[in-house]
Peptidase M16 inactive domain protein (Peptacetobacter hiranonis), 440 residues
Amino acid sequence: MKNKEDIMEKIVNDIIKEELYFETLENGLRVYFMPKKGFVKKYAILATDFGSNDLEFVPKGESDKIRVHEGIAHFLEHKMFEQPDGGNAFDLFSKYGASANAFTNFNMTAYLFSATENFNECLTHLIDYVQTPYYTEENVEKEKGIIAQEIKMYDDDPSWQVYFNALKAMYQKHNVRIDIAGDVDSIYKITPDELYKCYNTFYNPSNMILFVIGDLDENEVMDVIKKANHSDIEKIEGKIQRFPNEEPKEIAQKEIVEKYQVSMPMFNIAYKDEDVNLRGKELLKKEVVSDILCDMIFKTGSELNEDMYMKGMVNDSFYGGFYSEVEYAFTLISGEGKDPHKVKDTITEYLERYKKEGLSRVGFERAKKKKIGEFLKYMDSMEFIANNFISYAFKDVNILDYLEVLKEVEFEDVENRLRTHFKEENCVISIIEPLETEEN
């Protein structure tokens, strides 16, 4: 039998003075541990590479692909807390004095907790309950009413709707245009058998990552994890067969307008990215370059932001940022203003002027230095490190490479991104208008 030293890999980043321990367990679970000396709080997150976008796949042990009902990843997350003994997984975390949570997004589902004491007990519990599915006709039916209420709540949220309408305007076929929770009709069709197919395929340890961070001993952490890990779960060999829809480069439609009970029009202006299906450092560099560009153009204090704010076109809710995944990416500009079309026209004018006249080198250097400072500051946040580490890891990116990639970004990279990304034909606008317009 191998010694721990022969199995556990140690990664050292001299630039940011961080260490990372890594090991793949026999059933395929990838485990990462980052020591943080002097920190009182400890944090762990266990995530699966399975989100609301994963609707068509070949289940474990089968040969034909299936399509599951929309919202099933989110539904499955809800059901993971119900235990065979009738208890709720959250109850034991509370008993140990820990704070626990879970979330589902388009691309992954994660279960997490933070604690200052009883950490080993909490870590054992996290692994055990996520590796113990329990779905019955009765408990699945009960959950449908709970999730239906959650869906209706989001249906009544204008900020959520303006965002999803922007996605629907950008994407013709990709599942990102489908609400993470699905709709009431789809979730009422979900069965225990369907949940088990998803669980046995995507919650296989070989499709999951566990990240632990805190003032802990790496060998003790690994011992706890190996004892808690259900080593009898059979590892899936090779990659899970998924069937994402082929998304055209063209947008679905230029504009979507809806009316809600709001006092002022809300808008999302979005630019669909053509440069997709990247992984690793190539994806990370595109993200970093795009982030710097968005900060230069849209952030508080920028020429565009100040101009529109001083003219009363937008309020202080105005924001622009880049959202990056493997299969899709986009820049999203959100805010409130009396005339969203005028805001869009003004943004277009500024972008075209920057393309002709060029960006500010001084502004680039300032934005880049600010990004470096922000990243170093965030490295003191366990939640930031853990959540971003796992999200990046599923895209073959190591967050410890972020600063190196950021420092390598040149002014020309940002100017080139400006010309290739911000194309009018890839631009959409989603607007939420007030139900009643008051006359002056």
In short: The longest helix spans residues 137-155. Residues 255-434 form a domain with the Cytochrome Bc1 Complex; Chain A, domain 1 fold (CATH 3.30.830.10). The first strand starts at residue 9 and ends at 13. The chain has a mean pLDDT of 95.
